Amino acid sequence: MKIQEYFGRIAYNKPHKDADLQTLTAIFQHHIHSIPFENLSMHCGEPIELDLQAIYNKIVRKKRGGWCLETNYLLFWALQELGYDICILGANSYEPAEKGYTAQINHILLKVVIKGEPYIVDAGFGGAYQMWQPLMLISGKDQ
C-alpha cells in the first residue's frame, strides 16, 4: 500500500494522523465517491483476484471500481495502514423480493473500533443502498 497513491485515487488531501471518527468519515466518503461498485471484470472474462496487490493495481493504478470484496478489502488495507483497529466481517444481504436474508454469506463489510466504540463501514454495496457514513454498531437496532 502506497497510502499517498491511494489518497490520490480517492482525491483525499486532508490530515490523516489521527485514527479518529472524523478522519474515518472523510476517507470513507472520498473512497465511495471515487471508487464505484462495478462488476465489469465478470462480463469481460477477467478473473476476480482477491490478492491485495492485484486489487490495489486494479482500483488504484488502473482507476477501476470493483465488487464489495475488492473495494472493502482495499479500504481495509488503507485504514489498517493508518492505524485503525479494523476487521473484516462476513454478511448476508437482504433480498427484498424474498423478504429475507440470503442463506449464505455473500458480502463483506468492515468493523472499525474507535475509542472502544464499534462502527460499521461498507464501501462496496453501491447504488441506492450505499451507506454514506460510518454507523455505530448497536446490537438489535435497525439502522
UniProtKB/TrEMBL annotation:
It is an enzyme of class 2 (transferase). It holds the Pfam family Acetyltransf_2. InterPro entries: Arylamine_N-AcTrfase, Arylamine_NAT_domain_sf, Papain-like_cys_pep_sf. One of its GO terms (molecular function) is arylamine N-acetyltransferase activity. The keyword rRNA processing does not apply. It comes from the Eukaryota. Keywords: Acyltransferase, Transferase. Transmembrane segments: none annotated. Its EC number is 2.3.1.5. Belongs to the arylamine N-acetyltransferase family. This is arylamine N-acetyltransferase. It comes from Agelaius phoeniceus.
